[in-house]
Amino acid sequence: MRRPVGLVLIGLGAFFLTLAPLVRFYVADQVVVAPLNRYQVTNLESKDSTYFDEAEVKLKTGVTLLAKNTVRGDVRANEGNDDIAVWDSTTNIYNQAKPDKPVQIQGYRIAFDRRTGVLTNCCGANVDGDNGVRMVGYGLLFPIANVQKKDYPFYDMTTRQTAPMQFNAVEKVHGLTAYRFTQTIPLTKTASLDAKLPAKMLGLPEDAGNQKVDRYTEAYNTVWVDPRTGVPVKHRENIRSTVRTSDGKGSMIVAQADLITVDKDQKGLVDMANSTALQIDMVRSYIPAAGVLLGLILLFVGGYLGMGRREAPPLEAPRRPDGKFGDMTAPGPPKPPGPSKPSVAPTESAAPIAPSAGPPETRRPAPRSQRQQRKAAGPAKRR
Predict the structure, then answer these.
(1) 3-class SS at 171?
(2) How wide is the angle at C-alpha 122 spanned by C-alphas 93 and 139, nearest 5°?
(3) Where are the beta strands (DSSP E) in 35-97?
(4) CA 59 – CA 257 distance, rounded (Å)
(5) Which tops the pLDDT comparison, 316 or 191?
(6) What angle do CA 118, 121, 124 make, to 5 degrees?
(7) Burial class (CB in 10 A: 0-12, 13-18, 19+), 380
């Protein structure tokens, strides 16, 4: 039984040794990808903010603004190409005191490579319904499971331009070691408004009359990202939006806020990053390493059992010349013969013969008398 068991163990060992690189270099590439059906809600908060209330035509200061960002994956928008993920993002900014009256709503759709996170222009990608935008670089995610300490090009949805996301430092976010990146968006014209504003609101003399204005935005964005997965775990968006006249002499703040991910959602994003990192480590490290170790152990044990010295089979009982089974062991050498004793016919007058040291000498029998001869002949001779 040792040899068959050893061969089975050798086969299993070879199987696990083959399975290890297969999991590491093939299965991992199929598993370590961005999901198609992501659903995530993240809340940000900005205290002591300023914004222009259009309903009351008044600039309000010292208010708390909240931003609710919802990301939802559209699994059918990629037209059957599962290498592409399509996510819709909607951000609703509102005054905490007036949650039913939004200050600003922004929506966009991005399409990106599920393995690299790089944006691609397909599948209805747009910003606020504008399908003519050309997205370049990264969007919501960093490189999937491969974040380095370097700068990355990121597409800004507000100004619709790509600006570098620069690596700054390594910091802790609820116990997770994260990379901090910052992006500076310079003052950029984002829209031309049809409405005219009074000169007084723009800081101009009243006799200047109503002025046509354009909207400008500048921002300083900070992202803390898990380098193991590429998942952002914290956001900070310091934005400043203004309206200005074409000559730049008149201006007014429309919104100014410093939005930061709330603490509760930071913890939730950290938990999600840890769970994702465990799945990545399983297919990239733990399972391949366990396969190699188990395969080597099985090969060693199987080789010991299968290639070891075999026990000699039991000998069959030999068959004797008479047809029966028995011992056929050859007899030992014959024993040397001892001194033979002469056989002497018993007679009445015979005397005991003394043993001699050497062989007996041959003697001629003595002549017998007539009486002895007749006695030896018996009764028949006497008649």
Answers:
(1) strand
(2) 45
(3) 39-53, 58-73, 84-95
(4) 13
(5) 191
(6) 125
(7) exposed
Closest CA to 221 of 135, 161, 136, 131: 161
In this prediction, residue 111 carries a pLDDT of: 96
Residue 63 to residue 65: CA distance in whole angstroms: 6
The identity of residue 132, as a single letter, is G
The two three-digit tokens of residue 81, written as one number: 């190409």
Q: What percent of the chain has pLDDT over 90?
A: 48
> Is the CB of residue 152 less than 8 Å from the CB of residue 165?
yes
> Taking all residues of the chain, what is their mean pLDDT, rounded to a whole number?
83
- pLDDT at residue 349 tops 70: no
What's the DSSP call for residue 207? G
Instruction: Please tell me the pTM assigned to this model.
Output: 0.72
Please write down the long-range contacts of 165-171, taking CB distance under 8 Å and 24 or more positions apart.
165/138, 165/221, 165/223, 171/224
Segment (H or E) for 156: strand 152-156
Tokens 């769970």 locate to 275
